[in-house]
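Regression report. Comparing outputs from two consecutive submissions.

Submission 1:
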Amino acid sequence: MLTEFADLAFARYPDSKDAEAEVANEVKGNDFLRKHKARMIVLPENNLGHFKITLENLSKEQCTDFVGVAEGNSNMFSGVEVNGTPVKDYSAATCADGSSVSLLRV
């Protein structure tokens, strides 16, 4: 869901800060995303399509689900971090209640 907001924002706004602001506005209208402090940060590669999406305070199951999304969509996401640590082996991700997950698209 947040990736769709990000893709639409990039299509509408050539400036990365404007795209980030548009995604922040979309998050405000979604209870789940707002509850988990979802945010998108454009990565500094000077390419608007490169970004990181982070959700915080996830349950163990939600964390595992988001790691699975990254694993199942490797053409869309180049990596995933759990609690700020890059995950190399998705099946070994250390998800627990209260985890944060970042999905990277680079």
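Submission 2:
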Amino acid sequence: MPSCVYSGNGFKNMLTPWKLLLCQVAMNIFYHVVKAGLCLGGHDIFGAVRENSPTGEFVADINMEGNTGTTTIRLCLTGENANWFFLEGQSIRLNSSYTRGLDREVLGSVLMASLTCYEDDIIQSEYRIMVEILNENDNKPRFVERTIQPLYISELTAINSEAFAVKAKDADGDTILYILDLMSPDANYFRIDLPNSGKVILDKPLDFETKTQLEVVIYAVEMNTGEKYNTTATIIVNVLDGDDQYPIFLPCTPISQDQADSICTNPLYTVNITEKEQDSVLHFSPGPIHAEDGDKDIRVPLSYTLLSGDDHGRFMIDNETGQITLTRRVENRLLTPTYTIRIMAAQENDPKKYTVATALVHVQADNRFPPHFNKTTYKGFVIDNTSPATLVSTYGNEVLVVQAIDRDFRDGVNPRMTYSLAPKGLSTNLYHITQGGILIAKTDLLQPSDRHILKVEAMDQETGETAQTSVDIEVLQKGQSVPRSQFGEERLFGDIDASLAGGIAGVILLLAAVVLCLLIRMMRRWRGRHDPADRSHVARGKHPNVGLKRSKRISDAHRYALKKSDDWLTDDTEQLTERSYDIISHHFHQAHDQDLL
């Protein structure tokens, strides 16, 4: 509904009574009655108002010049943007609200309306109203959505070329400046040469094998305003794999521990065969012969070729799988103990991209027996001392030799056998084993009464066969002797000095000899006293029973004599065992029986 204002002396006389109330309400809402000049005395109105101004903000004055009469004129606002204004007296004011603000970026820079003058409900004149909306910096820059979507860039993109471009707009029309956030994860890959252009330049080579995705943050900042409003966008750059890598044989061996350095060397393949072997597929170590394209996301098919070492067709390779086959047996391993084969793997779509690896084929004698140890556990001893290194000994204070037996050799000794301690740990750091199976202890690091269990592994370097055993090592106190055998570890004299123990043993043996001599002498004397009587009994031809009774009495006499001899023994001789007593009695009775015969 247009906003109107009535003016003139005859206003109320022109209205019928029933319209009076309606006009009064309309005047209070939409128009204001003013008394002014004639309609023809006006002119076009020009004004200005700042965007986001509050409702009722002054826009422009209305000037109507001319002779006033008894007629009433009516002023109305019409036109496209008339609803943004209302009339108050002889002025035009802004008609905005909280929910409908004056926004230059939405409405444009100029509001157009018309001021129509009615006299007696007849249009007398119409004047243009042009109000400029003065811009306020009330908008931040905004990136164009399509320019900040995830990007895909080939790793072959040249340095110093444009990688991508971003675009931001400011509704206020401010000039935009583009800045890289140097703290973003991958800002060092890019740069912006022209800050107003939004073009991002590649400053560092891309490498798909090292990094497949980059992240960079870009600021869009107002350059010509005091507020310097800005906004940010995170750009995700996905790196596409390019065919820039050569094939490589697996397993790959890195030349350094640096994770960022992906350069590695081809492995050396090895395999063992026997003289009798033929028409068989070779199984190499550290793995099957296999290469792959260095461009992991492309995986171009490869072709395998033997460059040298095929020995006139003795070895053949599958061009697709890299599998090598031995076609005929080796005639004499002494003449050709090792074959060296050079293998090439090249890309099928670009043969100039290739790599070469070496394979060694060792010819061995027929192996029938695996190595083994004679014992599951060896016993070792180390005496505490200040020496930095000491050989580990075993029973009898002999050097401990932990050596595996290989029955493929006449003497059981395989010259290609090597020894190692496994697994690596605290105990194994205290010992070292030679290739002859001799254990060396780091004595200065050991403590008395320590006990260590070591695992020893023997490996045949030709066949790769292994055998394992354990070594139980005990650290003895300083001055403590090594046991003579595993059954005599408990020593008779404990930990006393060896020379003292030998002296005591000698004294005991001497006393035993003296006692034995005394007993023999006593028996001889006793026999001398009783032999004549025995002979007389035999000569007289008495009944045998009489002789037996006599013998019984003689035996009783023997026991009595032995008892008396025991009383003559010193305290040392009383230490004779019961077994010694029985042995002496046995010899005594044998001698008496011979005399009777």
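Expected: both submissions complete independently.
Actual: both completed, but the second showed a warning that disappeared on reload.
Relevant detail on submission 2: The chain has five domains: 3-134, 142-240, 248-364, 377-476, 498-596.
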